[in-house]
Amino acid sequence: CLSIVSLLPVFFFQMTKSVTNPEELGGLASQMTNDYGHLALQGRMAAATAEPEEIGFQIKTRVQELGHGCIFLVQKAGALQICPTDSYTKRELIECARAVTEKVSLVLSALQAGNKGTQACITAASAVSGIIADLDTTIMFATAGTLNAENNESFADHR
């Protein structure tokens, strides 16, 4: 999901850059529409699994707002293709691209907020893995008899 969101600003940049070449806008709008479709599907799954439920609602809402912004951007791209010399439409396209870029950052922040629990689990799992590795190393040395015993008991007695 995050990888799709990170691709969208590239298309917005290309779209604003294509103001000088309006014939490129159709292909860019089509690609952006496809990418948004993938994002919407992934966003729906992320929202459904997000904890707390409030984060899921935020993801869903922000992805929808991004979709509305994408619609306006595609409409402005179409309008510029119809009249490529209209400076007002060019400015509107650039403003729409700027607004969509803002919405992308809001989607990213919502996804990252929903990712905090996952990151905490990954960190905890990493810490537990480190402890297990330390225990395995200690067991290996103890089994080899390189650790000093406090009395005449063997490691096998305590294992």
Automatic annotation (TrEMBL):
One of its GO terms (molecular function) is integrin binding. GO terms for biological process: actin cytoskeleton organization; cell-cell adhesion. Keywords: Cytoplasm, Signal. The keyword Transmembrane helix does not apply. One of its GO terms (cellular component) is cytoplasm. It is found in: Cytoplasm. Coiled coil: none annotated. Pfam families: VBS. This is TLN2 protein. It comes from Rhadina sibilatrix.
